[in-house]
Amino acid sequence: MDLQRLTRRQDVAAAAASGNALRRTMGMWQLALLSVGATLGTGIFVVLGEAVPEAGPAIVVSFVLAGVTALFSALSYAELAGMIPGAGSSYSYAYATLGELVAWVCGWCLILEYGVSVAAVAVGWGQYVNELLDLTIGVTLPDAFSAPPGAGGVLNIPAAAIVVLAMVVLLRGAKESAVANVVMVGVKVAALLMFCAVAFTAFRAGNFRPLFPLGAAGMSAGAASLFFSYIGFDAASTAGEEAKNPQRDLPRAIILSLVLVTALYVLVAVAALGAMPWRDFAGTEATLSQVLVRAVGGGSLWPILLSVGAVVATTSVVLTVQYGQIRILFAMSRDGLVPPVFSRVHARSGVPRVNTVIVSSFIAVLAALVPLGSLADATSIGTLFAFALVNIAVILLRRRSPGAPRSFRVPWSPVVPLLGVACCVYMLFSLGTDTWIAFGAWMAVGLVLYWLYGTKHSKLNLVKGRQPS
C-alpha cells in the first residue's frame, strides 16, 4: 500500500453536506448542556473517592491540572468545530488535516473513549443505585447481580439496564434526548451545590495539611486518573450536524461547558476534603454520599438527596456520551471506513437506529462484565491521544490554510496547541503499564480492521487520487 493512500485527506464539509443528513435542532445552550451532561457525572461522584488516596489534599490541584490540560485542547476543539462542523468530532478534524490513517487511529481512540466511558459511568450508576437503596430502605442488590466478575459479582445488571434505558431515549430523536438532558443537568448541578453547602458545615482546614503528602508524583497521578472526569466536554463537537448554527455556537458551547464543569469540580473537591480527611478515603472507594454521612450523620436526609442527584447525574452522562459514540461511528461509516449499516438514518426519527442498537448492546455487555477502575484508565488513555491529535491539527491547518474562515481562533497559536500536546503527553506517561498494554492491544486490533476493511471501502477510493487542499 502506498503512502499517499494512507495520508489522503478528506473534504469534510463536502462529506457532511451529502447523503444521510441529520436534523438540525440544537441551539447554543443545548449544545453546552450536552457537553456538561456528558462530563459531569461519575468522575466527580465516584472516581473522586478512588483518586484521593493517590494525591491526598493535592487532589484539588490535580483537578486544576487536569482542567488546564483539557482547556488547551478545548480551545483547539473550538477552532476546529467552527471550521469543520461535522458529526465525527476529532476524527473528522484529523481526516481533514492529518490524513486517513491518522483519522482512523483518532476514530478508534474515540470509540475507546466514548464506548468505554459509557460503560464506566454505567457501573458508577449501579453503585449509586445500591447506595440509594441502602440509605432509604436498608437493603442492597445482591453482589452477584450488581457487580462484575473480578469485583465480587457475576453480572452487573443495573449497569446494563441504564445503557438500555438510554438507548430507548436516543431512539426517539436528538431533540427529545436534548430536552431530557437539560432536565437532568439541572438536577445534578443542584445536587452538587447542595453537597458543597452541607459539606462546608463540617469543614476542617487542617485536613489540607500537608497539601502534598505524596509529592508531585502523587499529584500528577491523581490528575491522570481525574482526567476521566473531564471526558465529555467535546461531546458538543459530535453534534455538529445537528446544531442550528454550528460555526457560531459550537466554539462557545465547548468552552462554556468546560469552564462551568472545572469551577464546580474544584468547589466539590475542596468541600469533600474539608469534610473528610484524605486518609479516610483509602480503601473505602468513598462516594460523595458517604462523605456526607461522615459529615452530618447517617440519619440525615442530605445523603439520600445527593444519592438521588447522583443517579440522575450518571443517567445524563450515559445518555449524552452514548449519543456521541453513535455519531462518531455514523461519521466513520459515511466515509466508508466502517460498514454502511452504522450510517443508515431512519426516515421518521432522523436517528441512525441500527447504529444505536448495535452500539448500545455492546456497551451494555461491557458495563455488565468489567470493573470501574479498569474502564476509567482505558478511557483516559484513548482520550489523551485524541486530544493531542486535535492540537496538532490546529497547528497544521494554521500553516496550510491560514486564510480559511474561522469563527473562533485559538489565542497565541501555536504556543497554546503545543502546550496542549505537551500536557497530554505528560499525563499519558503518568498512566500505568497495564493501561498501556491494553491500549496497545486495542490499537493493534484497530489497525488490522482498517487494513482489512477501511482501506478498501473508503469513499475516497471512488475518486482516484483525490486529495483536497
Task: Describe this entry's structure for a reader.
The chain has about 475 residues and is mainly alpha-helical. About 65% of the residues lie in helices and about 0% in strands. It has 17 helices and no strands. Helix 3 runs parallel beside helix 11 and helix 8 (about 155-170) crosses helix 13 (about 300-335). The protein starts with a helix and ends in a 12-residue tail after the last helix. Mean pLDDT is about 80; it is low at about 465-469.
Low-confidence parts: 464-469
Structural class: mainly alpha
Overall geometry: globular
Question: What share of residues is helical?
Answer: 55-70%
**Rg from C-alpha positions?**
21 Å
Please state roughly what percent of the residues sit in beta strands, choosing from under 5%, 5-15%, 15-25%, 25-35%, 35-45% or over 45%. Answer: under 5%
User: Major β-sheet, in short?
Assistant: none
Which descriptors apply to this entry?
single chain; 469 residues; mainly alpha; 0% strand
SSE inventory with pairings:
Layout: H1 3-7, H2 12-16, H3 28-39, H4 42-55, H5 59-83, H6 90-97, H7 100-137, H8 157-170, H9 174-199, H10 215-226, H11 246-275, H12 288-296, H13 302-334, H14 353-369, H15 372-400, H16 415-428, H17 433-457
Summarize the structure.
The protein is an all-alpha fold and 469 residues long.
